[in-house]
Amino acid sequence: MRKIINFILILLLILNCYSPGINTAFADVDSGVYTNILDDLEKDKNFKKEDYPLIEEDYSLQLIQVAESENKELFIYVYQPNGNKDIVATYINMSLNSEFTNPSLYSLKLLNYTGTLFKYKVNSIEIDFDSVRYYNIASIFRDFIPDIDEDVDSNNTINSVSFEVGQLWALSFDDNNNLVSEMQKTEVVTIVDKYVGFLRYNSDNFWTGKKCDVHFVAFSTDYKIDELYEVDIRYITKKYKTTTDLGILIESYESGTKYDSSITHVETLTSDESIDATLGFIIKEKYSWDMISTSEKFIEDREKENIQFSSSAKKQIKDKEWVLNFYISDYKKWNDRVAGTPVVSFETGTKVEQVTLLRLKFKTDGKIYNLGVVDNIQTGSDTPSGIGYTLLDLIKKILDYLKNNWWWILLSVLGFIILIPLLPIIIPLLFKGIKLLFKGLWWLVSTPFEIFKEK
Q1: Per residue in 92-102, pLDDT tens?
Q2: CA gap 417, 312 in Å, rounded
């Protein structure tokens, strides 16, 4: 059994409440590989198991300490008052810097537990003992529990809920190779309301059914943000194809949706950047969406584009403070036909899911903050929040084009009118020219053969 290099900082706030008793049965998930959580914790003479009582109605997660192993692994120790072994932590939102920069969601693996105390390994971490190690942890996650966790009042789905941690751990070795550890509390910003959605822009290429989806998230925080500069966001995408048999033929198609492999994205959005796309087939037009905008400006800009929001989606967005446009994807829907009759329908697109914010950089009351975020992992509906560029929009664009280019159109029409009386002269000359052209081509092709024939 490998020796664990443990350090322990006990939770500062002691729970002054009566404990009805703790289930002390020990479950070693990876027997013989990792040390028992109590063996680790009891190395601190100040540790008291009774400070972590069973509270059956409390489903929160509270990170109480971290540890490193000689095998360059990172562990976290979590107090879970409910004590249910089937409710486990899944991720932590963590930066490996003293300032909260370049954060990521790190998945967790449950190693063992006893009562309300759970020990996890942090995946995808390899420790470098030659330098100071920073573990800047903003929040910890577990799966959403129906009828226990508060749901959203929209068509969104909460995948995971998060709990505030706000701890910066710094670990190093002194000159005598003794472990030195420090922990300080840090500020975090909490997302108090969020809505994930997308807008579908129709192209004027109606016969192919190709469209464009613009994905966004609207949110509010527990800070009154005056200016929002940067946001680190994490989300997952996967392409799909849906087949729907329309029940016309006896030999039916297999209906259903097939997904490609998921891709995880962690990106930084900035207030001075945008995402862009060129839409249209007959008349091309460039569209631009600010990565970061207020909800008021977002709605105003979209309505200028003739986006028709659903009433519920518009209310959800208006109730939030900020909107992030973070991803563009193609969407296409078409039918296969037999003798002109549609027999099967196809859809291809990209599903965006499990959206969460990791970091915000913003200004409030003249002070600039760069904070880790406490936010749910959330997925939007498969139904667009708004649709734009309909057939009426196409007609309007054509009329606008005629209006803006009337002078050239007028010259073209006048030129054609002037040419009409000359057509009886022009057309015979045109045919004569074509006839001469073909005679010339025939001469070029046939001449070599005539030369060889004479020889």
Answers
A1: 999 999 999 99
A2: 54
Token pair belonging to 118: 């759970």
Q: Tell me how crowded residue 206 is: count the other CB atoms within 10 A of its CB.
A: 13
Q: Please name the residue that has the structure tokens 């709990």.
A: 163
Cβ atoms of 94 and 29 closer than 8 Å: no
Q: Is 439 helix (H, G, I), strand (E, B) or coil?
A: helix
The predicted model scores a pTM of: 0.79
Cβ–Cβ under 8 Å, residues 377 and 356? yes
User: Letter for the amino acid at 272?
Assistant: D
Whether the CB-CB separation of 353 and 235 falls below 8 Å is answered with yes
List the alpha helices (DSSP H) in 223-310.
295-304
CA-based max dimension of the chain = 120
Residue found by looking up tokens 């920073």 in the block: 134
For the chain, the residue count is: 455
Across the chain, mean pLDDT equals 86
Q: Match 């016309």 to its residue by tokens.
A: 248
Amino acid found at 34: Y
Strands 227-245 and 263-270: antiparallel
- The DSSP line for 72-113 is S-EEEEEE-TT--TTS-EEEEEEESSSSS-S-EEEEEEEEEE
Q: 227-256 burial by CB neighbour count: b if 16+ within 10 A, else e?
A: ebbbbbbbbbbebeebeeeeeeeeeebeee
**pLDDT above 80 for 253:** no
Supply the DSSP symbol for 443: H
C-alpha distances out from residue 22 to 25, 26, 86, 308, 392, Å? 9, 11, 16, 56, 68
Decide if 444 contacts 451 (C-beta within 8 A): no
